[in-house]
Structure formats: C-alpha cells, structure tokens
Amino acid sequence: MKVTKAVLPVAGLGTRFLPASKAIPKEMVTVVDKPVIQYVVEEALAAGINEIVLVTHSSKKAIEDHFDVNYELEAELERRGKKELLQVLRDIAPPELKVTAVRQGRALGLGHAVYCARPVVGDAPFAVLLPDVLVEQGTGATNDLGLMTQRFIETGGHAQIMVEPVPEELVSQYGVVDISGIELQAGNHALMTRVVEKPPREEAPSNLAVVGRYVLPARIFELLANTQPGAGGEIQLTDAIAELMKGEGVEAWHISGRSYDCGSKLGYLEATVAYGLQHPQLGADFRAMLARYQG
Question: Are strands 133-135 and 51-56 parallel, antiparallel or unpaired?
Fold first, then answer.
C-alpha cells in the first residue's frame, strides 16, 4: 500500500496571475531560480513519491518539456565544460522520476481534474499536490507529505488532508474542515467530521483551511464519478471527500511548516522573498539587498 504516485492538476488558466500567465503556464513562473512546479515535484520526491501524473491542457506543453531531456542543451553544456550547470539540468528529472501527462479537455473543477488521472493511477493510493501552492519541506521527520503517506499506511488507508490555520476573514476562500473543536497542533492529526467548500465566514466550522496536499485511497475515483457540480458549478474534490467520510476515516494533518499561495500575486512575492532568503548561494546577498529597501 506504499504511496508512489501523485496527481498534479496543471490544466487551469491561471487567471489570478494574469498578465504573466497569458502565454506562460503559471506553474512555470520562477521562484528565485526554479519554476514553481519543480519545487512541488521535488517535494514529492522527498516524500518517496516518484510517479507524477500531470493533468494538463494543450497550452501547458512547456511543463512536460521542462521534465523531459534536452539532449542538445546537455551536449552543449558538456562541450563547454559547464559541469555544475549540467548537473543542475539533470537534477530536474532524476532517473527515478516518471512523468505521465493526461489531458483535461474541459475545465470542470479540481475533482474532475483528479478523476482524469484515474486511467494512470488505477487502484493504487495516491497523493494530490496543487502545483501553485509551495509547502516548506524538509527531509525525514520534517517532510509533511512523507509523514502523511506514513500515516495513511499506519491507519490502513485513512485519507490525509493537509490543513493550515487562516484568518477568519479569509475562510470563505478555502475548503474548511471540522474536527469537533479539537485543538490541533502542528505536525499532528485528527479525524475530520466535515469539510465545507468556501463557506461564509459565519458558517465555517473552524479556521483550518485545506492547503492543497492530499493522500487519498483509490476509492475516491468511484465517488468522484458520482459527484455532482457543487460550489462554482464545478466538481469539487471536497464534496467527494465528504462522501468518503461517511464510510471511512479521513484525517486532517496540521502542516508543520507553512505554505505559500503562488497562484496569487502577493503570495508569489512572499514566496520569492522567503525562498530567496533561504537560497544557499544568493541568500546572504539577497538579505543585504532587501535591507536597502527597508525604512
């Protein structure tokens, strides 16, 4: 029951990021020196997940190309003796990484995008990673996604949903979970009793918002096949998860680090600052540069 597959829905139009996303997939916009989606794939690899299923659109071919081999560029870097750059290029798609792409012909919501991956995922459990959300990751005991997959196995297949507290005035922008008033600490989990997609502030069951990381049993596909359009007229993954809860346990996993919404312009800027400060080569100089703009 090991989790080795992850679905990355990348077919969206990225309207929140216009005009940058007019001709460039929003997932290919760089944070410091790597596209957002590369960070997400690296997060999956660090969690032991090496089979990536891109649910994509005809305008997103650049994403597939990014994880493909560019023989001409590699040969030119090798000819010039640019060994470090050559290794950087090869690290994008290490040998253990397997990337498959399937098309989402119509934009019918996240639930529909996940369902499009069914022929590739099959009957295996899998993760879902929203590619415009960056999650601070570590290795081993500090990798949330890896710990979520371990918890999935320990429970015999209880779905794991990553959550993070958000200000109450923002709950209407997220899927929000109910854990019966339990005070959930970072890095811990609790059974969910309800999940609501974009509730009005006064009706939200908590301030714990779904971050964009899920570990799910294959049974979710059967539920998605029968899920009717919900919020926004789209097939919502949260509605299928709500059905899943009626028959088996679903747990909320409190993120131990923090997330960055790179689908919004302000969230993208915050991620750029955070990841720039942490960059092993550029961090110190970037910090000094930022200091010149303070005051």
Answer: unpaired
